[in-house]
Amino acid sequence: MKNASPDTILTHAGNDPHANFGIVNPPVYHASTVLFPTVAALEEAGHSFDGVRYGRIGTPTSQAFEATVARLEGGFKAVTAPSGLAAITTALLAFVSAGDHVLVTDSVYGPTRLFCSDMLKRLGVEAEFYDPLAGAAIERLIRPNTRVVFLESPGSLTFEVQDVPAIAAAAKQAGAVVMIDNTWGTPLFFKPFDHGVDLSIHAATKYMVGHSDAMLGVITAGTEEVWNRLKRNSVQLGTCAGPDDIYLGLRGLRTMGARLRQHQDTALDLARWLQARPEVARVLHPALPDDPGHALWRRDFTGACGLFAIELKPCSAAAVAAFLDGMELFGMGYSWGGYESLILPIHPEKLRTATRWRTDGPMIRLHAGLEDPNDLIADLDRGLARLAAAA
């Protein structure tokens, strides 16, 4: 169906049961060697970065996953990577060379920042971090050698919503490639190519896989030209995800719409409850009407995922530990997007270079899982009681 809704695309895209004996799910191809019947067929396959010619280049399993993601986002084609960070680094390296300059939002994911300030620097590429709220004013930072403008909206620690269309317009005017880490927005809640973006990057480990049991990344290119350059770089770097992880990503996509609606609703329930708590100074969630980024979120997004943060009122490290150490339902660990709720202390002030992040109290990041929101609220209530007792 041409104009199918996202839930219908999630259910059917990338599937061809009648090509696989009527089996609903695409098979998992474990492959390295691919055989060809003739010299002509072998040589023809060798001239393309597409198709099935070697396991690392792609298989019907990876192609089914990529086709589903690309259709969801409205892009040309996608490229799979073995992790979200691998997707980010593969995309960046495809469009920069020694002597180039890239602009990266100051609210970017920590490992992306480290790659830009360390690896790219060693390769002779200058990464400059910019205020995530720059909007159209970013044009003042663009140089003749600026090749990439990198966004992450909202930032996954501090949740600033960027004016993506304004930034993209300024970047495109100067001939720079626009990339966005769209993991928070997901292909369902933010459509990058409708806002001027060239490449949309996801840690598919998060909501696409959805079950905290696989590492996976994916990059969607908006045009054939961008995809060709991206795919060539991916092949040259040798980045490829394992077939079983790709299958878990494809399986996770089938239920992502239903899961995201529950993640969204539960996160908003928790955020509103936390807003009323005396221990909490503020809640950072773009879907809340009083959030600084709410107007942009409402303009550009169609939903919100389960990830947000809070700033506690000033308290001791011992009080924060008392709060977090005794949680029963919220696990303390990195990543997010799985079925389980997570919580951890964060320190965004240590990561900023272009801007200053100021808070009076400690910050906590939460991911709302698929548990009953009342049970999660009860867990938080007990934790905040421990915090108050230890303060």
Supply the CATH class of the largest domain. Alpha Beta
Name the helix and strand elements from N-terminus to C-terminus, one letter apiece: HHHEHEHEEHEHEEHHEHEHEEH
- In spatial order, strands of the major sheet run 1-7-6-5-4-2-3
Distance between the termini: 58 Å
Described by strand count, sense and barrel closure, the largest sheet is: 7 strands, mixed
| Tally of separate helices | 12
What would you give as the CATH superfamily of the largest domain? Type I PLP-dependent aspartate aminotransferase-like (Major domain)
CATH architecture of the largest domain: 3-Layer(aba) Sandwich
Count of discrete domains: 2
Strand content: 5-15%
Instruction: Please name the CATH topology of the largest domain.
Output: Aspartate Aminotransferase, domain 2
Shape: globular
Mean pLDDT: 95
Number of strands: 11
Helix % is: 25-40%
Q: What is the structural class?
A: alpha/beta
Output the radius of gyration. 22 Å
Low-pLDDT ranges: none
Distinctive features:
391 residues; Aspartate Aminotransferase, domain 1; 2 domains; 4-stranded antiparallel β-sheet; 12 helices; Cys/Met-Metab_PyrdxlP-dep_enz; lyase activity
Topology:
Layout: H1 6-12, H2 39-45, H3 60-73, E1 77-81, H4 84-93, E2 101-105, H5 110-122, E3 126-130, E4 146-152, H6 164-173, E5 177-181, H7 186-189, E6 199-202, E7 217-221, H8 224-237, H9 243-275, E8 280-284, H10 294-300, E9 307-312, H11 317-325, E10 342-346, E11 363-367, H12 373-390
Parallel strand pairs: 2-3, 2-4, 4-5, 5-6
Antiparallel strand pairs: 1-7, 6-7, 8-9, 9-11, 10-11
Helix pairs in contact: 1-9, 3-9, 4-5, 11-12
